[in-house]
Write a structure and sequence with these properties.
Blueprint: E1 4-8, H1 12-24, E2 28-32, H2 35-42, E3 52-55, H3 64-73, E4 81-86, H4 91-99, E5 104-107, H5 113-125
Parallel strand pairs: 1-2, 1-3, 3-4, 4-5
Helix pairs in contact: 1-5, 2-3
Length: 134
């Protein structure tokens, strides 16, 4: 099965690292360097929702939480699994992500790319989107 995955991070090295991992496994990957770029893509009239969005929290301009809030409020990316991929591992950040119906939360510093890849596929294949599917 081929999945469409959006990667959102201002760290170009990490974007490339994760993109290669997904592309080498045959998945369709789009990368975005900011929350603004992601939202611009999702707001296009003919936008097709990806299977998953891996979303960093700390980015210049529109950060991950702001992007996630806009996605939920505007009903963008319907059916997409949204996974926070961040070095922010405080309980308050994890709780905020859950309150915004994030489907997963991965702490970058404690997950190698193959683990991020595997967790993303598990989350996509877990079924309907919504908080608490982990």
């Amino acid at each position: 099965m081929t999945y469409r995955v959006f990667l959102v991070d201002d760290d170009r090295f990490l974007l490339d690292l994760y993109a290669v991992k997904f592309k080498n496994a045959g998945h369709d990957v789009s990368v975005f360097g900011s929350g603004e770029d992601l939202l611009a893509e999702l707001r296009k009239k003919d936008a097709k929702a990806p299977d998953a969005i891996l979303l960093d929290l700390i980015m210049p301009g529109v950060g991950g939480f702001e992007a996630l809030e806009a996605i939920r409020k505007e009903k963008l990316a319907q059916g997409s699994k949204i996974i926070i991929l961040s070095n922010q591992g405080q309980d308050s950040d994890i709780e905020k992500a859950k309150s915004l119906s994030a489907d997963g939360y991965i702490i970058k510093a404690s997950a190698i790319p193959s683990e991020v890849f595997a967790e993303t596929l598990r989350t996509i294949e877990a079924g309907p989107s919504g908080a608490g599917n982990r």
